[in-house]
Amino acid sequence: MTEGTRPEGSLADIPGHSGRDAVVIGGGLAGITSALALADAGVRVTLIEGRPRLGGLAFSFQRGDLTVDNGQHVYLRCCTAYRWFLDRIEGTALAPLQDRLDVPVLDLDKPEGRRLGRLRRDALPVPLHLGRSLATYPHLSLAERAKVGRAALALKGLDLADPTLDTQDFGSWLTAHGQSARAVEALWDLVGVATLNAVAGDASLGLAAMVFKTGLLSDPGAADIGWAHVPLGELHDRLARKALDTAGVRTEVRTRVTSISSDENGRWSVEVPGETLHADAVVLAVAQREAYDLLPDGALDAPEKLLEIGTAPILNVHVVYDRKVLSTPFLTALGTPVQWVFDRTEASGLRDGQYLALSQSAAQDEIDEPVAALRERYLPELERLLPGARGAHVKDFFVTRERTATFAPTPGVGRLRPGARTKASGLYLAGAWTATGWPATMESAVRSGVSAAGAALSALGRPRPSHLFSVEEAA
Ligand SMILES: Cc1cc2nc3c(=O)[nH]c(=O)nc-3n(C[C@H](O)[C@H](O)[C@H](O)COP(=O)(O)OP(=O)(O)OC[C@H]3O[C@@H](n4cnc5c(N)ncnc54)[C@H](O)[C@@H]3O)c2cc1C
Q1: Are residue 132 and residue 190 in the same domain, yes or no?
Q2: Alpha carbon of 60 to ligand 1 centroid (Å)
Q3: Residue 418 in contact with residue 434, Cβ under 8 Å?
Q4: Which class of enzymes does this protein belong to (predicted)?
Q5: Is the shortest distance between the CB of 286 and ligand 1 below 6 Å?
Q6: Kind and range of the H or E element at 146?
């Protein structure tokens, strides 16, 4: 880095500029969002990212001619903050939503062979929008389907503001509400494992209720699924970078912050190799452990709580076939270790054959398994799942392992997650792990970035840009 921040006085001379400086540390979705929101309000922003690219936990890399995402990412129509982010970086058209929720669910455990069910919605009001799909869902008995309906209504009645929800686990609540082990596997965990990154028995009732109430029981279209039809890096790195540049943010990658401190006037110093950046506000948008390491003394009442927030892994298994073996954009499965399978062919730039990515959440048991063992397990499973794979040639097989993909959504985690404000004036926290009410998702990251920027702008006496109000209201 060469350029230091300009003296405060000169900034006020720039038309439309507040004469205030902010440094945002961490170029994941939380940090990018904060930087954009602050810059949109006229603050002069420097964004610092340790890695060579923006996007944090949601990124792409090259493997020969293939552009690979580190992990399949999806979002839902109810993810209003992430959708705002997509709009802000002009990426909405590249990550479209389904017109209507439609999830093919293949069960391999049926004695009569593979059986396809679908989770779909109608145009009817909540909760009737799922009624027909549930009534015909073949992977549950009639009695189980009726009980699912009753549990969904009970879930709808839970008050998300009730802190005792976070002290209970979702699995016990489901059992107490008449859900069989099969109903948990074939319905609740099917959705919950992918969104919470934990099975019901390991998940906070508060977070699970939040996901199911918002996604399935708020608005008929809330759970329609969206995903990037381009590599994640195209959105979270290239387009994000373009938006930051246009907004006037100075972005530095390959630059790690080593310490932060403030002086008696409340002015912050951010140390990076070879330079000290000065700022009126600092947003620390890094993972919880890194935040703990960088937080100055006294910034949080009990900083050690950050270290109590557990993490959970996600494994992605990537298979390139010499031909098309999956005819839908994605599917999910029962009676097999395979969780969700996505067709990544077009997004990856593959010209011949088909590239599938298997997204395996809550992968504690498999995350450290050798590639050979995973290959031996997953290729035969894919052949069971997709008859077309039986005669197909596997051109490439590899895995991506994210050991700390998300924070662990365990009961009690809510009391460990800090809000955006710290006790140190001018220092704010952001990150999917902060207290957004959401599990560790892109939505949570963007919401946290908006909250941190909003708090900083209030303290700087800057009006928030009007577009931030709508995101904050939704948040
Ligand atoms: C495999 C996988 C699959 C996922 N699937 C989904 C999904 O389907 N849907 C969904 O919504 N979410 C999903 N997630 C979660 C989602 O990716 C994250 O919640 C979100 O990206 C977190 O963003 P963040 O900005 O909070 O943190 P991060 O992405 O962790 O960003 C923090 C950044 O800070 C940087 N940093 C750390 N220390 C320093 C330092 N000292 N100096 C400078 N920079 C520093 C890091 O390099 C990093 O880039 C998935 C995650 C993974 C890994």
Answers
A1: yes
A2: 12
A3: yes
A4: oxidoreductase
A5: yes
A6: helix 142-156
- 401, 423 contact by CB (below 8 A): no
Residue nearest to atom 20 of ligand 1 (CA): 442
- Closest to 85 in 3D by CA, of 132, 53, 37: 37
- On whether both 304 and 432 belong to a single domain, the answer is yes
Short-list 470, 435, 473, CA closest to 452: 435
What is the arithmetic mean of pLDDT over 400-422? 98
pLDDT of 183 higher than 50: yes
Residue nearest to atom 53 of ligand 1 (CA): 405
The residue to mutate among 339, 442, 443, 444, having the most atoms of ligand 1 within 8 angstroms of its beta carbon, is 442
pLDDT digits (tens, 9 = 90+) for 133-160: 999 999 999 999 999 999 999 999 999 9
Q: Is the domain of 425 the same as that of 400?
A: no
**In a domain? residue 469:** yes
Residue 419 in any domain: the answer is: yes
Mean pLDDT of the residues in the chain:
93
376 and 398 part of one domain: yes
Ligand 1, atom 3, residue with closest C-alpha: 71
- Tens of pLDDT along 344-400? 999 999 999 999 999 999 999 999 999 999 999 999 999 999 999 999 999 999 999
Instruction: Return the residue whose CA atom lies nearest to atom 27 of ligand 1.
Output: 28
Q: Which band of pLDDT confidence, cut at 50, 70 and 90, is reported for residue 473?
A: low
Give yes or no: residues 304 and 327 share one domain. Answer: no
| 242 and 294 belong to one structural domain | yes
429: tokens are 């926290």
Give the Å distance between the CA of 155 and the centre of ligand 1.
29
Candidate from 69, 197, 286 with most ligand 1 atoms within 8 A of CB, to mutate: 286
> What CATH number is given to the structural domain containing 345?
3.90.660.20
How many angstroms separate the alpha carbon of residue 48 from the centre of ligand 1?
Answer: 14
Using the 3D structure, point to which of 201, 223, 245 is the last residue of a domain.
223
Q: Does residue 106 lie in a domain region?
A: no
- Is 81 a pocket residue for ligand 1 (Cβ < 6 Å)? no
CA dihedral 189→195→198→200, nearest 10 degrees, is -40
* Structure confidence at residue 111 (pLDDT): 74
Q: Residue 106 in 3-state DSSP? A: strand
**CA separation, residue 144 to residues 114, 163, 182 (Å):** 20, 29, 9
- The domain boundary residue, chosen from 407, 436, 464: 407
Q: Confidence band (pLDDT; 50, 70, 90) for 332? A: very high
Is 71 near ligand 1, meaning CB less than 6 Å away? yes
CATH of the domain at 28: 3.50.50.60
- The reply to whether 46 and 167 lie within a common domain is no
Give the closest residue (by CA) to ligand 1 atom 6: 73
Residues 152 and 200 in one domain: yes
80 found inside a domain: no
- List the residue whose alpha carbon is closest to atom 51 of ligand 1: 405
282: phi then psi, degrees, rounded to nearest 5: -125, 130
Residue nearest to atom 52 of ligand 1 (CA): 405
pLDDT in tens, 72-128: 999 999 999 999 999 999 999 999 999 999 999 999 987 777 899 999 999 888 888
- How many structural domains does the chain have? 3
